[in-house]
Amino acid sequence: MADQSLDGMDDIVADFLVESAEGLDELDQQLVALERDPSSRSLLAAIFRTVHTVKGTSGFLAFSDLERVAHVGETLLARLRDGRATATPHTVTVLLHLVDALRELLDRIETTGTDAGVDLAPVVAEIQAELQAGDGAPAPPAEPGPDAPAGLTVEPDAGRSAPAKGSGARPKPAAAKAAPAKSQPAKSQPAKPAAATAAPPKPAAATAAPAKPQLAKPQPTSSQPAPEPAPAPSEPAAPAPAAPASSAQRPAPVPAPEPAAPAAAPAEASGGRRSSDSTVRVDVDLLEQLMAMVGELVLTRNQVLERAAASADPQMIKVAHRLDLVAADLQDGVMRTRMQPIDHVWSRLPRIVRDLGAQLGRQVRLVTEGADTELDRTLLEAVKDPLTHLVRNAVDHGLEPAADRRAAGKDPVGVVTLRARHEGGQVLVEVSDDGRGMDPAVIGARALERGLVDEAGLAKLSTAEVLGFVFAPGFSTAAAVTSVSGRGVGMDVVKTNIEGIGGSIELESVLGQGSTTRLRVPLTLAIIPALVVACGEHRFAVPQGGLRELVGLPSGPEGTSTERVGEVEVLRLRGHLLPLVRLDDALGLEPVASEDEPHDRVVAVLETVGRRFGLVVDSVVGTQDIVVKPLGGALAGLEHFSGATILGDGGLALILDLQALSRSAREQDLTSRAEEVTESQQEVTQLLLAEVGSRHVAVPLEIVARLEVVAAGGLERIGTRWAMQQHGVVMPVLDVAEHLGEHVGPREDVALIVHSVGSRSVALAVDGILDIAPAVPAGISNLGAPGLSGSVVIDGRIVELLDVRQALLAADPRFYDEVDGPTRGSTYKVPRPRALAATEGAGR
Amino acid sequence: MRSEKGQSAKGTRGARGPGEGRRTGYVTFELAGGLYGIAVLDVQEVLTEQRRTRVPTAPPEVAGLVNLRGQVVTAIDLRLRLGLPPRPQGARSTDVVVRIGDEAVSLLVDGIGDVVEVEDDDLEPPPDGLSGPMADLVLGAHQLPDRLLLPLDAVRAASLDVSV
Hints:
The structure holds two protein chains of two kinds.
Chain A: H1 9-36, H2 41-60, H3 64-81, H4 89-112, H5 121-133, H6 264-271, H7 284-310, H8 314-337, E1 339-341, H9 343-346, H10 349-360, E2 364-369, E3 374-376, H11 377-398, H12 402-407, E4 414-423, E5 426-433, H13 440-449, H14 455-460, H15 463-467, H16 479-485, H17 491-500, E6 504-510, E7 514-522, E8 527-535, E9 538-543, E10 547-553, E11 563-565, E12 568-573, E13 576-582, H18 583-586, E14 601-608, E15 611-617, E16 619-627, E17 641-646, E18 652-656, H19 658-666, H20 669-679, E19 687-692, E20 695-700, E21 706-711, E22 716-718, E23 721-726, E24 729-735, H21 736-739, E25 749-757, E26 760-766, E27 768-773, E28 788-794, E29 797-802, H22 804-811, H23 815-819, H24 822-827, H25 836-841
Parallel strand pairs in A: 2-4, 9-18, 13-15, 20-29, 24-26
Antiparallel strand pairs in A: 1-3, 4-5, 5-7, 6-7, 8-9, 8-16, 10-14, 11-12, 12-13, 14-15, 17-18, 19-20, 19-27, 21-25, 22-23, 23-24, 25-26, 28-29
Chain B: E1 23-31, E2 34-39, E3 43-48, E4 52-53, E5 62-68, E6 71-77, H1 78-81, E7 94-100, E8 103-109, E9 111-119, H2 132-137, E10 142-143, E11 148-151, H3 154-158
Parallel strand pairs in B: 2-11, 6-8
Antiparallel strand pairs in B: 1-2, 1-9, 3-7, 4-5, 5-6, 7-8, 10-11
C-alpha cells in the first residue's frame, strides 16, 4: 500500500494493531456485560465507540475489508445505541462474531500487512440478518459514516437501500482497492436518508486522522464492563462539543453525539483513568533490562552489606544501610513496573464462559473479585492457560445443567467465581463453582482401578488426598470419571505448569455444593527468597516457596535418629514418617575428609508436587533474597539445579530444584505413608477444639481436667483478671478471646476448659467446645502470633494452637510457682513441636 | 563485556592483511606441553585463575562456576575436555573466557601465550593420529617458527553435548 511507504506509517499501523486488539478485548467483556444488561446506554456507547474507532482508523489506513466489516457492525450498534433495537442474546452472539472477524483481520494485517484474504461473507451476512430481523425500527443506519468502498450492503434495511450507495452486495474484492481518501466519510453523506436525523451527519473529521498521534495508552484493561473512560484532552482534531465523549485513541473524532446518552458520555470522560498524560508505554525489553540491572544491584548490595557488617567503620555501616534501603525501594519499584493486574488474564474469561455456557446449554454467571491484584507479567502469562483451563472445567464439569440445579434446589444460573488476592508474598487465585462438586468415592474407585493406590492405602487417605488424584497424569481422561465426578482432562498439566513457576495448587470440593481450585503463585520469578544451606564445602540455595520447616537431626550413628522403611530413610516427625533425601548422597558429594565424628545436621522439610520430604544438609547458612541466574548451556541439562546465584560474599550457590530432589524420595512415598498411620498411632496428639469468636483454637486434650458450661454472669472481675467461685474455691479464669485480642460480643454462656494440677485449677473461657480432633498429622507450623504456639489444619480449617503455658500464666501468674515440683513435668505436657526451635532460629 | 562478537572460530578469520590472503589472530595457550589457540575474536578476556564453585553431578570437564562480575559463567577444564591428563595438583590455571552467542564460558588452560597472527592459507590438516575429542576440536595445525599451533573450535570446546 502506498501509504505505508510514508514515514512512520508502519509505526502507526503497529500502534493501531495494538490499540485495536486492546479495544477488542474490552469489547468481549462489554458485550458479555451487555447481554446481562441490554439497555445499558453507557455500555452501548462504549461498544459503539470502540467499533467506530476501529472503523475510522482502518479507513484512514486503507484497510478496506476491516473498515467494511466494522462499518456493518457499527450500523447494528448504532441502532442499538439509539434505542431502535434491543440487544438480544442472539444480537450479542452476532456482535461477538463480529469481534472475532475483526480480530482475525487484525491478525492478518499483523502477519501479512494487508487485511485481504479473510472470508467475511458469513459474518457480514449474519449481521445483516440481525439488522433485518430487528427492522421494526424505521430508521436506517444512523451513521452515514465512511461508505463501504466495495459496496457491500451495509445498509441493512433492504427496502430502503440508499440509492446513491454502492451497487448492492457485490462480493468483496480481496484486494484493498480503496485508497484512503475514498473512505472519507464526507463523500457519502448525500446518501444519508432523511430519517437519520437523529444522528447529525458526521463532518469530514476523518481528514484529521493523518495527524492522529497514536497516544501512549497503557491500558489498565478495566475489568468492569463499564466503558473506558476517555480522557479527551489530547485529541488533536476534536473540534466538536461532543469531544469529551471521544476517547483519546480515536482517530476520527465523531462529533456525531450519542444522542440517546448525552449525559453518560461526559460522566465517563470525567472518570479519566486512562490518561495519556500520566502514563507512558514502555518497551518490555527495557523493563527486563532494568530488572536485570536491579538484580545486579541487589547482589552488589548483598556484598556491600556483608563487608560493612564486618567493618568497624560506622560511616561505612551507615552508607551500607542507606544503600540497602535504596536498593530495596528500587527493586520494589522496578518490580512494580512489571506488575500487571490479573484482570489482563481474566478479561478473556467472560467470553469463554459465555460461549461455553451457550454451547452446553448452561446458564453461567462469572463473578470476579480482586481483578486488580497484580503480579509479574511473566507469571501472568504463565497462569493464563491454567486459569482458562480451570474455568472451562468449572463450567463444563463443575456446573450441572439448569434442570439438575433446579432439582437440587439451586439457582438455575450457575456461578463461577474468580478470586485473587495477595497473601503472604504470594498471589492466591481461586476458581470456584457452585456445581455438583467432586465425589471422593468415585475418584477413589477410579484411582484403585488405575492402580494408583491399593485399598488399604485408599482407606487411609484423607478426602483432600483422594481428590488429589485428579492431578495424576492422565487420570481424568476417562469419560466415566469426567461425567460423574467432575474435573476434565489436563489437571496434571495445570499442576505441572503452576509448579513450574514455583506455585502450588490445591483442590477443595464439597459434594453437591461445588469445588474450589486454589492456585498460589509467587509475585515474581527474578528475585526469590531462599534458604542457603551448606553441605560439606558446598552451599546451595533452596527456594523458600517449598520450605515448610527446619528440624534438627541429632547426631548419632545412622539409624538412631532416623529409621528405614524399605529402601528409604525416614524421620519420625510428629507421628509422621518423613522420607529423607541426604543431599550429599543425592548429589554424590564426596564426604568431607577426616570427619569421623558425627555432627548434628538439619532437615529442611520441603514440599513440592504435593509431596513432603526432608532434605538432610549439614547446616543452615541463612536466608537471602537471591537473583536467579540461569546455568550455561553446558549445564542446563543437570536435573538437580534450576540455576545459580551469587551470594553476599561473592561466592556462588547452586539453586536446588526441589522437584528433581523429591523424585529421589518419591518412589517409596506411598509405602511409607501406608505404614505411618498405623505406626504412629501412639504419637498422635489429641486436640480439643474450641471456638473463640470467629477463630478455632485448640489445646492438647491431655491438659483438660474437665469441661463446664457456665453463665457468663458467673465470672467476676478481680483486678485485671477474671475468676469464678466454685464450691467455695476461687478459680482464676482466662478469657481466651481477650487473651488473643479477639473481639466477641456479649455472651450468655461460656465454656470453661478446666486445667488442674493437684488442688489448683485454672479455667480457660471460650465461646464453645467444638470437637476433639484425633490427630495432628499434617504438621504443626509455627505461626508467629502472640498467645499461640502454632497452627494446624484440621478438616480444611486453620486451627490455632493456644500456647497453654502462656495462657495459664496469664490467668494465674503464680500457677507454676505453686505447682512446681515433680508433678509439673508429668502432668503438664504441652506438646511443643520439635521443629519450632530450629524454625525460629532460621528466621523462616 | 560484549565487545567481542561471538561467532564460531571458522567464521572469524577476518583479519585481513594488506594485499594478501586472510589472516587470523589466535590467542595461544599451553595445555600439557602443547600449544593451542582460539581465534582472538572469540575470546572475551583472559583472567588469572578465578575462584570456582564446583557443580556436583556435572561431567568431570566442568571445573565449576565462576562469578564473572555478576555473571555466572561455566568453567570447563580444557585439559579434560581434550582428553589430556589432568593438571597436576596445585598447578594454577588461567581462565580464557570465550563468548559463545550470548553466553560466556571460561576455558581453563595451563598458561597463556602470545597472540599470533597466521595466514589462513597456511592452515594444515590436523596431525594424524588425533583421536577422541582432540580430533573433534582441533581445526588444523599451523607451523609456527619454533613449534606447532593447534587451533581449536571454541564453540565446540565450550559445549559439552557435542563431545564424543
